[in-house]
Amino acid sequence: MILNTTHYNKEHKSTIADLVGSEFSLVQKLKLKGVGSKRMIIDDVSPNMKSLMNIVSDINYGNIELRPKGVLIMINQGLKNFTWVIPFYQLVIYKTNGSSIHAQGRFVHFRDNKTFKENKKFFDKLLDAKVKYDMEYAMPI
Prior knowledge:
By secondary structure, the protein is of the alpha+beta class. The chain has one domain: Pleckstrin-homology domain (PH domain)/Phosphotyrosine-binding domain (PTB) (PH-domain like), CATH 2.30.29.30. The chain is built from four helices and eight strands.
């Protein structure tokens, strides 16, 4: 689900909390040593997300926020902000010349550059959280 979060909306906050959980508390954020990535350059997006990208040749930026049951991908388009809400059970991450995040028939590919390399610890934390979630809700065989 993609939400226009340029302006504060109580409905958006409750929708996000229902899908991926509410924000981590300050103590939890300190224990996790941060729950947000640094801003990264968006290299490519799926065709159904092209409308969220800048039309002119500006660089598109995005960042990721970790939540208890999923992630939020924030995309900046000029003065507008969009948030893509992805629960862990829909999240798929590929590591190819950067990182590509897939879910809900969409994808975002982040460029492999200096800012992406600075986010390596965050991606490790993200993958650990996804594995922990998958193990908690795994189907018994």
